[in-house]
């Protein structure tokens, strides 16, 4: 299938604080989940709570939520008037690769691939036994429910609907699926009816998933027509007046499209493959549209020592062992740091170094030069970076590639300069240091620095580019194992910058080291975002959670579901 990769998520602490509280209220690890949908109907003066609760669940593969919104598909547009719905819902907000099978598993188990382990379309290595499907859970409930799965893809039924009371596959024949579903809805004992349509996914793969692609949009509109026929069949049931149906309509995933080059959204919300739609419908629901949160203006929030170069200040932070990071002749290592400099032109203040004196002797130093930055070293001529003195945060990378005898410098993941490496030995008795060293006396300079990383390998251009906007690093980065020093600099006070990997030492902050808190917007960065930022819209894993609650099934904490419930607002109009 088509793949789309993107630079991933960062952290909005202001949003996270509020949402973390919400998450705490919603998800309790030491007791079962309360059934809010059941509670919501206790004061129902119209008697809806005594009606038999049932579920129609329509899965539409490959339909991007934003594409559906642009089409104004007539039947779904009518349905959302009595729905909780979102066009910026998410298939999976984590780092898991999105596949049809993985997205289906999210929708049927209520957990992500981190737990169910469905990462490829052949379901290889899955952990579904530990995280059973909707059909298995309802079967275990022993309530005699008739559960049905009618699918357009054999692998859906084979791997996910084995515990359904009845299943039928019409391979790549959505029209036949629609016909079988409408027939099934004529049976009085239907309790959970699941329909899976695949033609929009096939159209997108064959042509494109773009809004303006007529083959793709025609496939979506045809499925919308099927949805209209199914809803008509549902309302025509002889027992419909005595029943209370929750209708769920959702795409399993979106599809890869050409990314907007001007976008500053690097979160999961910008990934068209993860973009889907989810609708929870009941004729008594009032309209509740769930928009995505603001993603283009996420501030980078952290703390930093203020590195001032005025004669009375000049703080620095350094390692106490001067032999640390002596990598020797033709050594391989990479140094990376986030920096924010005052706007203006500054001449030669060093901000990061392993050298006794700036610009002379063995070693290296990074410094400001005019409105840009430069790396000076004893193993290569000067390697110029690009403009950074603009009051914004930038990521600077210096690579000493001894294997290929090159020195490379990058700004925000873009290669600026490559220089040949000579055979000089850069080892010295100077401490690895942030801030002022002798020979760098521009007193007007002032910088903040965070997220300092040192690797014992020469990172490649691709590796640097892939994570250029990240404001932190963890084990999900394939080069995390190569770190020999990582200082996030989140302390906010004190005289130590803590090393996080356990492989290095803490940096000791000298005199005059004042801390500064900041929350800045910077186009080059994609700050880490708390998980709760992505639960502000419905996710695929929410659907089983909602269905269990609708059916008044207690959800034990031991199920370890990843979803949450979406409480409807009821109208006063009797269906």
UniProtKB/TrEMBL annotation:
Highest taxon in the source lineage: Bacteria
Signal peptide: 1-28
Keywords: Signal
Listed Gene3D superfamilies: 2.60.120.200, Alkaline Phosphatase, subunit A
Any one of the GO BP annotations: carbohydrate metabolic process
Keyword Magnesium: no
Residue ranges constituting the DUF4983 domain according to the UniProt record: 475-566
Molecular functions per Gene Ontology: hydrolase activity, hydrolyzing O-glycosyl compounds
Protein name as it appears in the record: Type I phosphodiesterase / nucleotide pyrophosphatase
Lineage, top ranks: Bacteria, Pseudomonadati, Bacteroidota, Sphingobacteriia, Sphingobacteriales
């Amino acid at each position: 299938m088509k793949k789309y990769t993107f630079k991933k998520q960062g952290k909005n602490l202001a949003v996270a604080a509020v949402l973390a509280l919400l998450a705490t209220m919603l998800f309790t690890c030491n007791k079962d989940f309360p059934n809010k949908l059941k509670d919501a109907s206790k004061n129902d003066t119209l008697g809806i709570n005594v009606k038999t609760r049932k579920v129609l669940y329509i899965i539409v593969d490959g339909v991007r939520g934003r594409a559906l919104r642009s089409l104004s598909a007539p039947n779904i547009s009518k349905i959302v008037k009595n729905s909780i719905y979102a066009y910026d819902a998410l298939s999976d907000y984590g780092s898991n690769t999105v596949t049809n099978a993985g997205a289906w598993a999210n929708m049927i188990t209520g957990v992500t691939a981190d737990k169910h382990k469905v990462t490829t379309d052949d379901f290889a290595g899955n952990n579904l036994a530990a995280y059973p499907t909707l059909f298995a859970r309802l079967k275990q409930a022993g309530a005699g429910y008739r559960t049905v799965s009618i699918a357009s893809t054999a692998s859906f039924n084979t791997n996910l609907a084995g515990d359904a009371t009845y299943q039928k596959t019409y391979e790549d024949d959505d029209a036949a699926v629609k016909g079988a579903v409408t027939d099934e809805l004529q049976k009085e004992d239907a309790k959970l009816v699941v329909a899976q349509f695949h033609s929009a996914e096939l159209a997108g793969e064959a042509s494109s998933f773009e809004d303006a692609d007529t083959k793709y949009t025609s496939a979506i509109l045809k499925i919308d027509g099927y949805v209209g026929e199914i809803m008509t069949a549902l309302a025509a049931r002889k027992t419909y007046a005595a029943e209370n149906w929750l209708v769920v309509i959702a795409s399993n995933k979106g599809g890869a499209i050409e990314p907007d080059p001007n976008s500053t959204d690097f979160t999961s919300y910008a990934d068209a493959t993860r973009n889907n739609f989810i609708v929870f419908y009941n004729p008594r629901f009032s309209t509740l549209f769930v928009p995505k949160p603001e993603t283009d203006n996420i501030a980078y929030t952290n703390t930093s020592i203020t590195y001032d170069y005025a004669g009375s200040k000049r703080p620095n932070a350094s390692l106490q062992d001067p032999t640390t990071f002596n990598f020797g002749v033709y050594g391989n290592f990479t140094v990376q740091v986030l920096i924010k400099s005052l706007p203006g032109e500054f001449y030669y203040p060093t901000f990061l170094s392993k050298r006794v004196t700036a610009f002379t002797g063995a070693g290296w130093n990074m410094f400001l030069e005019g409105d840009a930055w430069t790396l000076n070293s004893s193993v290569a001529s000067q390697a110029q970076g690009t403009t950074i003195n603009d009051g914004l945060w930038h990521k600077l990378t210096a690579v000493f590639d001894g294997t290929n005898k090159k020195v490379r410098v990058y700004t925000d993941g873009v290669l600026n300069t490559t220089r040949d490496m000579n055979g000089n030995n850069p080892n010295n008795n100077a401490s690895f240091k942030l801030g002022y060293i002798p020979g760098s006396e521009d007193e007007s300079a002032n910088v903040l620095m965070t997220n300092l990383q040192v690797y014992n390998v020469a990172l490649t251009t691709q590796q640097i580019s892939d994570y250029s906007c990240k404001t932190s690093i963890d084990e999900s980065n394939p080069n995390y194992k190569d770190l020999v020093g990582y200082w996030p600099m989140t302390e906010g006070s004190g005289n130590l910058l803590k090393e996080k990997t356990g492989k290095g030492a803490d940096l000791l902050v000298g005199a005059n080291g004042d801390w500064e808190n900041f929350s800045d917007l910077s186009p080059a960065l994609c700050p880490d975002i708390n998980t709760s930022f992505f639960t502000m819209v419905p996710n695929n894993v929410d659907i089983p959670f909602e269905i269990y609650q609708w059916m008044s099934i207690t959800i034990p904490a031991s199920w370890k579901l990843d979803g949450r419930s979406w409480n409807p607002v009821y109208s006063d109009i009797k269906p």
